[in-house]
Amino acid sequence: MQTVQNVTNDETGKGDKPKTTAGSGIHFEPGMFLYVPKANFQDKDTIVRMASIPHGTTMNAQGHVPTKTANPLGGVTGAPTIDVVDTTPFPIGKFNPEDRLVKLFATPMDAGRDNLTLRVPQKLKPFIEQGTITKEIIKNPNIVLRNALQGLTVKEHVAFEVSTGHPTAKVNSGGISNIAFLSGQQDPVKDAVTPASVVRPNAHAESATSKFWIEKIEYDVIVPKLPGNASIDLKPEMPPSHHQAPTPRFRITAPPGGVPPGGKKIKVTGTQIQYSQTIILNFGGLSWPHVTCATLVPTDLQRFQMTGKE
Q1: Phi/psi zone of residue 13: left (φ > 0), alpha (ψ -120 to 50 degrees), beta?
Q2: Which intervals of the chain are annotated as region Disordered (predicted)?
Q3: Which domain holds residue 67?
Q4: Rounded distance, CA 269 to CA 277, Å?
Q5: How many C-beta atoms lie closer than 10 Å to residue 237's C-beta?
Q6: Is residue 94 part of a domain?
Q7: Residue 238 and residue 219: Cα distance in Å, rounded?
Q8: Tens digit of pLDDT for each residue in 185-211?
Q9: Is 248 a domain residue?
């Protein structure tokens, strides 16, 4: 289950508005992942993301299972390279970089411009000062993912991508379906197989691509004096205050001999997931890249048993 809430705080320029604030709910999305073993017509294992967006869109997005390595997670050593995305709209059916309407949308995508009536929040100055919403982030939201990795020690990562079978997809299958209201005016259906062409879409979701990075992060945790086998819940030391990664929590259990006076700094590994999803929405004669991205850590405590050799 994916949920999205508006936690942008106009006063602080941060995402610290309480989730219980009236009207903060934006979106929820039930779904699941499938693991599909290779077959005689498909020589690689695949991953399928099934999702239902409750404003009238469903999708099956597919991709290849990444090659496993000898690392603990089976991933690639070190931090991932986060892709660049571009939210600049373009004419429907024209996907080349030169087709992006950069000049037309230069003002609406400028975080420094106030009183743009179609934008929420209206006043972005506090966010610019905090570095949470900038002109660059509006154009390439994946900058938020890069910022979240600053100062972290990423030991390894596993990356995979799923998409709905658009022409450049690695797995040419899957698909995305919209209710009639979103598709808008359509040509008559010719047969039971060929979908009707969309003439005037209201908000027709044409395609979807999602990329996921599962990361193993090494944190520094300062453990205070503890008796043998006692447990304590702690947060790790995090990079400077400008750092935008969420903070995990660990349940640290002392070794039989305990932790001596003065405490001890230990290294603890935890799991972090980052994702970036782009859905192409068609309306008003244009294709609008709708990008969502986030950095996630478990809400549950991650457990770590000290051995005394740390």
Answers
A1: left
A2: 1-25
A3: 2-213+272-299
A4: 26
A5: 11
A6: yes
A7: 8
A8: 766 766 666 666 666 788 889 999 999
A9: no
Question: What domain count does the chain have?
Answer: 1
**Partners of 271 in the β-ladder:** 216
Of 259 and 191, the one with more pLDDT: 259
Residue 131, C-beta contacts closer than 8 angstroms, at least 6 positions apart: 147, 242
Per the domain annotation, does 266 fall within a domain? no
pLDDT, tens digit (0-9, with 9 covering 90-100), for 96-147: 888 899 888 888 888 887 766 667 777 888 888 888 889 999 999 999 999 9
The pLDDT assigned to 192 comes to: 60
Cis before 260? omega within 30: no
Contact 47, 35 (CB under 8 A): yes
Residue 59 contacts by C-beta under 8 Å, 6 or more apart in sequence? 49, 50, 51, 53, 164, 174, 175, 176, 177, 205, 208
Distance, CA of 141 to CA of 124 (rounded, Å): 15
Average pLDDT of the chain, as a whole number: 88
First to last CA, the chain: 37
> What are the helix (H) ranges across 65-162?
125-130, 135-139, 143-149
Is 225 part of a structural domain of the chain?
no
> According to the model, what pLDDT value does residue 190 have?
64
